[in-house]
């Protein structure tokens, strides 16, 4: 079976979806739509249609929604009604309530509904999660993420929490294998925009692992780092480069008493792993395809997308109120 795919939105993410869709075996890209046209010149030989109704009319089996978050619900509900399997770019929608409406529509229609959390396909994080599950770190103590960069001009409808931190909220829970239990957050507004551009958030997962997220649009360099600390050392992922390193606790006792008094562990061997580095978005497309064909479940479900929205809204509520927010199981 060849999946007939349509893509809604040809902007900063949509153009990359077009490229990867054309390279995905078993998928035929048959229709594109964007009211703003083809500003990156990726459409030919296809014409650019005005909207989602035109994609549906083209007879598609599946769709990717890569328009601004504010338009996700309208497009997704029309696609669900038309019986079209759909991958919606992160976050699933602008609010928990909206996200639930989308997820429920796809569940009722018995369709594949996926969310584009591409970091779950990052080779460094995939390998990190595998090694943690195999017990390399022993008991896991803490996960720390940093996602910092200059402000992206393309973002105007949400702040740094729902645009950037959404990746870290999703990946951290996925890596440690547990839902969030509680969070406390602070945000800042330093660039004169309506939405927040700085975030510091800390909390705990249901399995007792501590978590900390540092996210901003005000750093003059790009930083994409995930660190997991456990009883045997630390795994450090540079997700911008797809690199994973292991900082092992040393086995030799420290002889220098003054230093030993301050150090809980000694420094051991540092290993950077050689990984098979495929483009994460290409892997995401394959996961979506396989889910449609009933031969895989590695896509991020819309139910998971809703849970991430719940944590994001809890983070924003904590920042507004100064209170710790607790999440139900």
From TrEMBL:
Instruction: Read off the InterPro entries from this record.
Output: Gfo/Idh/MocA-like_OxRdtase_N, Gfo/Idh/MocA_Oxidoreductases, GFO_IDH_MocA-like_dom, NAD(P)-bd_dom_sf
Q: Which domain of life is it from?
A: Bacteria
SUPFAM superfamilies reported in the protein's UniProt record: Glyceraldehyde-3-phosphate dehydrogenase-like, C-terminal domain (SSF55347), NAD(P)-binding Rossmann-fold domains (SSF51735)
Q: Where is the signal peptide?
A: none
- Give start and end of each Gfo/Idh/MocA-like oxidoreductase N-terminal domain: 3-117
**Record domain GFO/IDH/MocA-like oxidoreductase: where:** 127-235
GO MF annotation, one:
nucleotide binding
Name the chain's protein: NAD-dependent dehydrogenase
Lineage per the UniProt record: Bacteria, Bacillati, Actinomycetota, Actinomycetes, Actinomycetales
């Amino acid at each position: 079976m060849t999946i007939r795919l349509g893509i809604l939105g040809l902007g900063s993410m949509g153009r990359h979806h077009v490229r990867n869709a054309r390279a995905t075996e078993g998928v035929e890209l048959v229709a594109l739509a964007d009211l703003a046209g083809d500003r990156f010149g990726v459409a030919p030989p296809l014409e650019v249609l005005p909207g989602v109704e035109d994609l549906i009319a083209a007879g598609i089996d599946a769709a990717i929604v890569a328009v601004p978050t504010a338009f996700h619900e309208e497009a997704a509900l029309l696609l669900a009604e038309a019986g079209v399997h759909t991958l919606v770019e992160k976050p699933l929608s602008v609010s928990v309530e909206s996200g639930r409406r989308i997820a429920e529509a796809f569940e009722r229609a018995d369709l594949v509904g996926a969310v584009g959390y591409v970091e779950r396909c990052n080779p460094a994080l995939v390998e990190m999660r595998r090694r943690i599950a195999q017990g390399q770190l022993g008991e896991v103590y803490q996960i720390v993420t940093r996602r910092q960069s200059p402000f992206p001009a393309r973002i105007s409808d949400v702040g740094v929490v729902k645009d950037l931190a959404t990746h870290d909220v999703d990946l951290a829970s996925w890596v440690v294998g547990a839902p969030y239990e509680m969070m406390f957050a602070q945000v800042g507004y330093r660039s004169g925009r309506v939405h927040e551009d700085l975030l510091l958030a800390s909390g705990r997962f249901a399995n007792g692992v501590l978590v900390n997220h540092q996210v901003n649009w005000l750093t003059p360099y790009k930083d994409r780092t995930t660190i997991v600390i456990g009883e045997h050392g630390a795994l450090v992922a540079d997700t911008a480069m797809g690199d994973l390193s292991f900082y092992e606790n040393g086995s030799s006792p420290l002889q220098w008493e003054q230093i030993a008094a301050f150090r809980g562990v000694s420094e051991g061997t540092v290993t950077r792993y050689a990984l098979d580095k495929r483009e994460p978005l290409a892997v995401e497309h394959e996961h979506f395809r396989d889910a449609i064909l009933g031969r895989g479940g590695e896509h991020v479900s819309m139910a998971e997308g809703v849970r991430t929205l719940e944590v994001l809204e809890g983070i924003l509520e904590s920042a507004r109120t100064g209170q710790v927010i607790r999440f139900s199981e």
